[in-house]
Amino acid sequence: MRLSADHQPLGGSMKLRASDESTMPFVAATNVWPNRVPAGSGYPVDPPADPDLTGMEFDSYHSTHPMNTVQVGYEMTGGASISSTRVLMPGYVSPSLPSGGGKLTGGILYDYMVAQAFRDHGWEVMLFDLETLPRYAKMLKFPAPRLVAGSCGRDHDVLVTDLGNSPLVSGLQHGTPMDSGRLDVLICHHFRAHLERTLPRRLIYGHAERRIVAGADLLIANSPYTESILLKMGRNRDDIVLAPPGLNVPVATNLRFRETPADVLMVGGIEPRKGVVDAILALEASGLENLRLTVAGDAGRESRYLEQVRHCIEEKGLASRVRLVGRLDDRSLLKAYAGADAFMLLSHWEGYGMAIAEAMASGLPVISTTAGAIPDLVEDGVSGLLVDPGDWQSAGDSLRRLFTDGELRRSLSKGALHRAAGLPTWEETTGRILEAVAERLSGRS
Questions:
Q1: Is the Cα dihedral 443, 123, 146, 206 positive or negative?
Q2: Which of 82, 128, 208, 339 satisfies CB 3.0 to 4.6 Å to 167 for a cystine?
């Protein structure tokens, strides 16, 4: 069988027609594009095997068969075909990069999942490599749009950049001429200008962030908090897509509770923004000598901060109670969540908090801060306990309160699971982004 479209690509109400070249094991039809299949709509959800769809017309299709090899042709009367759409993105979204579980985290994982969604829908994802830039550009985050443009060219329909790379790629969007129908998309995880330690870097980041936000056609916000910042920067709500990250772990079915709890887990890079030293100080301030803290994450380029962390552990005499286990693969991370009694992340800033979402999905009560988007994710007293950023003394009090009150642990575990059950899947998140990009492209064609 072959499916062909009678009109309008990308976001319009296209019609698909089935011809008799082959059959497919399972097709569900719906009047929504991209392929979202509500139960009971369109073609029956449970059709007989290998249905003959010859001559049928429907608005979209979705195959649920894992071995489906049906060819899909989009024969349009106007505009470029969906499958010919070319998207330019940073090189870290290459499908060849992950060599095992746990290699992609945070914003990089988010961008990777978006790129995969584009590929899955037949779009060509082209890459520009930030690692080939001169060392001064990468270390100083020096604007290098001409160098990037020179390495990737301009033969693309959609440019997708990440706010975290804004100083490097600032100005690249101006190589995407709007009058040619090309689209500039900016993924916004968190604004980091105020987190830089030196004035020159804060000024560079601040200028680049304002410039690239103002120049983007479509902005992807990973949380309501990020969306609020974009609105304060003068962007129209119609230009913003709210698309929180999908869950990376399954939602647990049982509450997390042990009569004699002792293990606290932190998942995050060893960097100042994550408040690792604060977590160690909070452990000591709790006054509970049976508590153990496991920190899962690597230091990356933050070797100086890693030394501060190790010095703090030694100075406080906590070497037997604090473990730095590095970044964990997927299986080991799931075991770490399963073996913990509570999760603590005392970040000074989060644009969303993917590790917090994973912890709540695992049924763990959360101790965190009011920084950035965290209160959007964790309701104080319902799914976790929140303190001000940097207030490790209050975090220690929260640890003591949590680990000495069994009913509180039960209540917060229940609240965490309830909140996690309402979080989106990656399919929902990337589908929302894909739909918005397709709609914008359709309007330009």
A1: positive
A2: 208
